[in-house]
Specification:
Blueprint lengths: L4 H8 L4 H21 L1 H5 L5 E3 L8 H7 E3 L6 H5 L7 H28 L1 H21 L3 H28 L6 H25 L3 H9 L1 H9 L6 H6 L3 H14 L32 H26 L8 H10 L4 H9 L5 H19 L8 H23 L1
Antiparallel strand pairs: 1-2
């Protein structure tokens, strides 16, 4: 007898051993994604420096002779002298990355809906690795900045599709778990990147070391199956049955006699696929979409502002970057606890966390600046606390 997709997942397993391995692989990919996303924090860091005061440097060559950087690490600042009037170029490279991130998130979703999750994911990861090496080997600032733009496109798109795959390999009851675990691993990845930066002080080597794990993930990704949910939505029931059988074997189950019902959402040849306009056709759905998009924008804007600013805080550069990631780790169990409770749920939880995050960020404006030790401790703590609450909202 033919069964629905969720019944088939129940037979094959909602989160068995095979699915745990698939999910773990895609979740660990977030460490690589985090290293690429946070690259500019250390690669663009400004070490202490002073310029000889005999006259004003009139050329880059003269500046190179008169400037003296601390030799505890190198960065694009020390190599291309991005200080004074040239200092904006560090922020520009970061902005180009996030501009690419926006494009990648907009384009990769529809592409994966049309072409399939696996080919779009693997293509994105391939170009992520390629442009990551271009970043590390860039002969000049212009090449570096352009490569960061393209890294942003493919890094954001790959992260998006890999997140979708972690959801579509498992049963519905585990969606919140795998989604939260993905965000948690991204936070750990920030700490891993800080550790790499502490051990590798030359910026080109750091970029190479941070990018190389992508090669391993790329090679192993060819063994991933296509999303059974995407196959089913496209009317490819036979292929979806094969993937579910593969999952069942991975879960240690015997061969199943699976026969899927035809997908109710399968389009006829003369029908158009649903598009983004479907989100704005109906008033209720339109306002919910606008509100959630605004909340996501605010969370991302402030979260990345705090995280990328970790290198500007007082104290140890690498410790600040690591703490900006590690402070988010407790967000995972807290989020799972609150959203599963009937008295809190998703809406109330998100509302409260947004309020707490807002107050934590606002309080940093009123800290005394004349008390050196107090400011040194309190600003990073409140900033990390704000990032913690914002990470809960993202989850």
């Amino acid at each position: 007898m033919a069964v629905g997709l969720e019944e088939a997942f129940g037979a094959a397993g909602e989160f068995g051993g095979g699915q745990r391995r698939l999910t773990a692989f895609l979740v660990l990919l977030q460490v690589y994604v985090a290293c690429q996303s946070m690259l500019i924090v250390l690669v663009g860091a400004v070490p202490e420096y002073h310029i000889d005061q005999e006259g004003i440097p009139t050329s880059r060559a003269e500046l190179a002779k008169r400037i003296h950087f601390a030799d505890n690490f190198t960065s694009i600042v020390t190599e291309w002298y991005l200080i004074e009037q040239e200092a904006y170029k560090v922020s520009l490279a970061s902005s180009l990355f996030f501009a690419g991130l926006l494009i990648g998130n907009i384009t990769f979703g529809p592409l994966s809906d049309k072409l399939g999750r696996k080919p779009v994911y693997i293509s994105g990861l391939f170009f992520d690795v390629v442009f990551g090496y271009v970043t590390a080997l860039a002969p000049n600032y212009d090449t570096f900045a352009v490569s960061r733009f393209f890294v942003g496109i493919v890094n954001g798109g790959t992260a998006l599709v890999s997140f979708v795959l972690t959801q579509e390999y498992v049963g519905k009851s585990f969606w919140s778990f795998t989604g939260s675990l993905t965000n948690l691993t991204f936070a750990v990845g920030i700490a891993v990147y800080a550790l790499l930066g502490y051990c590798v002080r030359e910026w080109r080597y750091l970029a190479l070391v941070s990018n190389t794990p992508g090669v391993i993930f790329l090679l192993l990704s060819f063994m991933l199956p296509e999303s059974p949910r995407w196959l089913y939505s496209q009317g490819k029931t036979a292929e979806a049955e094969d993937v579910l059988q593969y999952i069942a074997f991975g879960n240690g189950k015997e061969r199943l006699n699976l026969k899927l019902q035809p997908s109710a959402g399968t389009l006829r040849k003369d029908e158009l696929a649903p598009g983004i306009l479907n989100l704005v056709k109906h008033p209720v759905l339109r306002w919910q979409t606008i509100i959630l998009m605004y909340i996501w924008y605010v969370c991302s804007f402030v979260y990345y502002g705090l995280t990328l600013n970790a290198g500007e805080l007082r104290g140890n550069l690498y410790l600040n970057v690591a703490l900006s990631g590690l402070v988010e780790v407790p967000a995972f169990p807290l989020c799972m606890f609150f959203i599963e409770k009937s008295w809190s749920g998703r809406r109330k939880t998100m509302t409260c966390f947004l309020i707490f995050a807002g107050f934590a960020c606002i309080f940093t404006m009123f800290l005394p600046t004349n008390a050196e030790m107090l400011a040194w401790v309190s600003v990073p703590c409140l900033a990390d606390l704000g990032a913690f609450w914002l990470h809960l909202c993202h989850l």
